[in-house]
């Protein structure tokens, strides 16, 4: 039985590949290395159960698998994570992001329908946009500007969810959707524009921390290990076809407070500089986890300080090695 992880060379995907391999599963990582890095998975390449496939979900999946000798009917599970997710990419790669979450998700679901594989689809808290309901429950339909700077991502993820519900209803595909809230940890790209790697890199370099707007906007940050546990539970539990859950931490903090925590952990006096808030930046983020707890018996367990400590150590090592 083979598991395909699309986007497997990215931040989340590489941790997922690692967890699956550690459990003895056979894993194919399908990634176009657009925002992912080959070095995230090179450490797995001497394991016989691991196959790296440089490919693109915007193309048909079956010929790509056959090219690397994987038999398509052996694929029983697909974690569909492929998509650039960094705000700095929204301006540079909007069409690629739209096509990946649109055509790409359709190709993955079509493949799953052909071979009868189960799918976990990585959606995002961004489907809620700048929310006027707080915390965000599953039945909140969101407040997304579908023509704004972030629309290529937010709206295409929503479209991806529509595809999932159609393939579940019309083609009987066992597809489960996770709406992932801000996640951080080792292997994030230091330059990817998301707040945790930006703050950590700046703090380690002794630079000012860049805060957009007045810094009173909130986020709830989840450490990668908690997410991986949630993703796997969503796949492993039986009877969840068609289900949707939020996965995120409920510890909501302001960006100003995050800056203080990072500065404390690197033990430096650090100043903050404020820059203009990007268009449609959400003001508040916190998942309503009631359905997640009921369905998966899952809660995030890693504290912000512990997760940030591990992340800072990883970034520090990477800087020393560079
Ligand atoms: N990290 C978060 O906080 C977060 C929050 C919500 C949702 N998500 C979702 O989780 C998934 C993974 O995010 P991440 O943070 O690891 O980002 P990432 O950029 O590190 O990983 C995405 C991976 O997908 C690959 N990819 C992109 N387009 C592709 C294509 N057309 N074909 C094949 N591969 C392609 C990239 O090369 C990269 O390796 C994404 O779908 C993202 O939307 C992440």
Write down the overall mean pLDDT: 96
Low-confidence stretches: none
Present as ligands are: nicotinamide-adenine-dinucleotide
CA-atom Rg in angstroms? 19 Å
Let me know the largest β-sheet: 7 strands, parallel
The name CATH uses for the topology of the largest domain is: Rossmann fold
Shape: globular
β content, as a range? Answer: 15-25%
CATH superfamily of the largest domain: NAD(P)-binding Rossmann-like Domain
Number of domains: 2
Strand order of the largest sheet: 3-2-1-4-5-6-11
Give the tally of β-strands.
13
Q: Write the CATH architecture name of the largest domain.
A: 3-Layer(aba) Sandwich
| H-E string | EHEEHEHHEHEEHEEEHEEHEHH
Structural class: alpha/beta
The helicity comes to 25-40%
Distance between the termini: 38 Å
CATH class of the largest domain: Alpha Beta
Helix run count:
10
């Amino acid at each position: 039985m083979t598991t395909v992880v699309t986007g497997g060379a990215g931040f989340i995907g590489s941790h997922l590949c690692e967890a699956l391999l550690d459990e003895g599963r056979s894993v194919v990582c399908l990634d176009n290395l657009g925002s992912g890095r080959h070095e995230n998975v090179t450490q797995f390449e001497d394991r016989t159960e691991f196959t790296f496939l440089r490919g693109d979900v915007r193309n048909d999946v079956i010929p790509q698998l056959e090219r690397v000798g994987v038999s398509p009917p052996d694929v029983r599970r697909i974690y569909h994570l492929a998509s650039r997710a960094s705000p700095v990419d929204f301006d540079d790669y909007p069409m690629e992001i739209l096509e990946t979450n649109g055509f790409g998700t359709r190709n993955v679901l079509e493949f799953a329908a052909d071979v009868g594989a189960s799918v976990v689809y990585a959606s995002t808290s961004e489907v809620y946009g700048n929310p006027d309901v707080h915390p965000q429950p599953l039945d909140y339909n969101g407040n997304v500007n579908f023509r704004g700077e972030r629309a290529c991502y937010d709206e295409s993820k929503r479209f991806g969810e529509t595809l999932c519900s159609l393939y579940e209803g019309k083609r009987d595909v066992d597809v489960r959707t996770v709406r992932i809230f801000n996640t951080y940890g080792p292997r994030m790209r230091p330059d990817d524009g998301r707040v945790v790697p930006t703050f950590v890199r700046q703090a380690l370099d002794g630079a000012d921390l860049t805060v957009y707007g007045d810094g009173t906007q909130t986020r709830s940050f989840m450490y990668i290990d908690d997410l991986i546990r949630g993703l796997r539970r969503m796949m492993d539990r039986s009877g969840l076809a068609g289900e949707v859950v939020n996965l995120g931490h409920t510890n909501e903090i302001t960006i100003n407070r995050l800056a203080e925590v990072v500065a404390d952990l690197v033990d430096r006096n650090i100043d903050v500089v404020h820059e203009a808030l990007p268009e449609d930046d959400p003001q508040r983020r916190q998942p309503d986890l009631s359905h997640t707890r009921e369905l998966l018996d899952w809660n995030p367990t890693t504290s912000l300080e512990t997760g940030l400590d591990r992340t800072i150590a990883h970034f520090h090592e990477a800087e020393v090695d560079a």
